[in-house]
Amino acid sequence: MNNLxxxxxxxxxxxxxxxxxxxxxxxxxxxxxYEEALKLQPDAEIYFHLGSLxxxxxxxxxxxxxxxxxxxxxxxxxxxxxxxxxxxxQQNKWDEAITSTRKAGELKIQGVWEHFQKNxxxxxxxxxxxxxxxxIFLENIEVSIANLELINQVNVSAKQxxxxxxxxxxxxxxxxxxxSSSLHSIIDKGYVESICPVSGKKIKSDQSFYVxxxxxMIFYRFLGTELFYLVVGGNWVRFNIAIYFPFxxxxxxxxDPTNGIMMEAAxxxxxxxxxxxxxxxxxxxxxxxxxSDQPKKISAVLGMWNIGHYFWNEIxxxxxxxETKKLNKVDAYVIGPNNYLDIQDIFPEIRAEKPNVxxxxxxxxxxxxxxxxxxxQPTYFQFCLTNNFFTVKLTALxxxxxxxxxxYHNSYKKCRPNFLQKVAKxxxxxxxxxxxxxxxxxxxxxxxxxxxxxxxxxSNDFPTLGxxxxxxxxxxxxxxxxxxxxxxxxxxxxxxxxxxxxxxxxVYAIDLFIMGYGAGSVxxxxxxxxxxxxxxxxxxxxxEAFCIHPRENCQHTFFVSRDxxxxxxxxxxxxxxxxxxxxxxAIYNKVVKIIxxxxxxRIVTSE
Length: 607
Hints:
Layout: H1 3-23, H2 27-40, H3 44-56, H4 60-73, H5 78-90, H6 94-107, H7 112-119, E1 123-126, H8 132-140, H9 145-151, H10 153-165, H11 181-189, E2 192-195, E3 202-205, E4 208-210, E5 218-223, E6 227-233, E7 239-245, E8 250-253, H12 268-281, H13 283-291, E9 297-302, H14 307-323, E10 332-335, H15 343-346, H16 349-353, E11 358-361, H17 379-386, E12 389-393, H18 401-414, H19 417-426, E13 432-437, H20 447-461, E14 466-471, H21 476-485, E15 491-494, H22 500-507, E16 512-516, H23 522-527, E17 530-534, E18 558-559, E19 565-567, E20 580-582, H24 584-606
Parallel strand pairs: 1-8, 9-10, 9-12, 10-11, 13-14, 13-16, 14-15, 16-17, 17-18
Antiparallel strand pairs: 2-3, 4-5, 5-6, 6-7, 7-8, 19-20
């Protein structure tokens, strides 16, 4: 073996050792291995890996030097350009960042999103399960666990609110489920407050980066002892997801798997990669946003993907802003495609109290699960930057009587006379039964036969029965199958083609309902109607009467018995969306008892 071959073998050995040590989390030892390899011969790939590890060690200047060496040796090393651009952008070295981004874009070997997904390396620490190694590391970088726990207090309150939702009773103050005190503080002050993880000092930020319109991920930029981002998200409860330190590529997660509402819809590093990608894709906009000396405008984002959460969480939050005289605090509303009833119609006071308020409507929507899709365009991210927005997600957890009345009266005004006549005609029946048909996730497998059997037997017990079929327009085939199985003399009505405002008006007219537990529950819930829910065992939570969620003066309702449910274990793996079958007799028996009680109340009222 000649001397050159021997050198190459040593380099390969050091490189393999560096890879193995880095994979094992032994960063400092891996750095030494890479440095030994580079002493023997400069190599672009080794410099790139060294730069990543130096970033993890907080040695940013050395990391930048390593990436620069990589592109000096190999001018088309696009991965190094992307990492240089990111680090320069976090140092506010905008010319260098823009130059590096342009170089990477010109090479077009791979895009920024593909780069960060493939090459990002983070140190990941979970606050709820700190190892001894984690504790030592945090102590060495002077990040206080006590300070992290203070930041996590927002989540403690969110967790309690979430737990209370599922045990709500009319005796509980409805005010407990309004906008959180931390969110009220943001609206009042126009900035978000946090604790510096190192110094423990209270610091504030009015710089936000709105990353996602499904999970409502927002990165708030803080200049504490060291630059960090507070990652806030959640599509119906706002909580602090993580802290990200860009100069250490350190993620400290607050997500707790023992609490369903605080579990990650995707790993936190996934959201960080999206944030990095969007930052470099919109670098000039980011620069202008951070350097602007103009006051930031408070922007509320709305248009939740789920109709139930839209009214329950978003619209209820605006009602509270109205009641607390804070509508004038919000400068703009950024509204996604799911604007089920326009807030300008529901709340004409918004423009009355703030004439110059802006409303922006978008059709762009993030995929249901990011992990199974390509990265969407940074539509919302860029729009909020170019408009100098400080972005917040408005959320509350209750429906008040005044809000329910708003929704009904706004809906009624939109209805045509012929529709209102049909609603009036349906009210002549007793009982007037609302039945929802659902054939997507969480489907009652034998619902066609089951619903037909329920209707047929109820019509024998209650000859003046009227039935309204509710659901998506795509359920028409199932409705027609049900109609073929029931006597033609039973009065039925088709609400499948109703607009949302029509659905709200009609559901106020019913006596009771039968439906699968899901987003459509919002209609009888807001109308405060009694009824029965069915679902898989994950969704069916109570054996006794309950309030579906916090609603002022709530009507108790019921679930079908769990022992009447059979899970379809082969349909999907996740228990939340698993299909199921249910014995229709269990639904029928409970519904009969509800109708008998309603009939007794009618008799008492008529007397």
